[in-house]
Amino acid sequence: MSHGPTALVVVGAGGHGRELMDVVEAVNAVRPTYELLGVVDDGQPDLNQLFRRKVRHLGPVRLLAEIDAEYVVGIGAPAIRRAIDSMATAWGRKAATLVHPRAVIGRDVLLGSGSVVCALASITTNVRTGRHVHLNIATTVAHDCRLGDYVTLSPGAHVSGTVTLEDDVTIGTGAMVIQGLTIGTGTTVGAGAAVIRSLPAGVVAVGVPARPRVPVTVEQNHAGS
Ligand SMILES: CC(C)(COP(=O)(O)OP(=O)(O)OC[C@H]1O[C@@H](n2cnc3c(N)ncnc32)[C@H](O)[C@@H]1OP(=O)(O)O)[C@@H](O)C(=O)NCCC(=O)NCCS
Description:
The protein is an alpha/beta fold. It has 4 helices and 23 strands. 18% of the residues lie in helices and 27% in strands.
């Protein structure tokens, strides 16, 4: 028995959301898989942009409660993906997992629900991701890595083998992480950083080598002024 395409809604009409629409279209070009019903967004999306790509703004995110469709979240911030995932799951919605046909995925790779692998991303072998993990364009994840829920790899980020990225970690564009390290929950690695030591949870680390940025205190801020 053949089934028709699965109804799909993208959450978020910003740049990342529209990039995910490209992934949906690329998947459909290989095999008609999804019927993209439109996008939900609580803001005021640029309707011209959506019109040019023939995607409807259906309304605010809460509409997802009433639409019988799978969803993907086209929003970079892990905390927002987490919040939307929790609402959508409570509404009984199922997250779609999208893999661009020009991504390269090796054997023994398990992607959590809602995860998105963009064009030119590569994952080698024995990799597990949590829910709603986003591997942006041209990212690489090598052997034996573990990526928690809502992890984001920005374009061109490289994660070497046997690395653990805990929940909500964001790796900035062009950054790299050498093998065997752990990056703690919620930590952000800045664009272009080279992570050569494990990082604790909840820090912003930048530079080559990457070091956690020391938060500026009020006193320091006023020193000398
Ligand atoms: C690290 C990051 C999160 C910090 O953002 P922020 O808190 O707004 O930081 P600011 O721009 O206020 O900069 C604060 C300081 O950190 C420095 N800094 C910021 N980002 C840096 C980076 N990636 N590498 C080195 N230094 C950096 C700034 O030069 C500034 O230093 P100064 O105080 O000596 O002038 C951000 O700069 C970054 O790299 N984000 C990744 C973005 C990305 O990859 N986007 C992809 C979207 S698809």
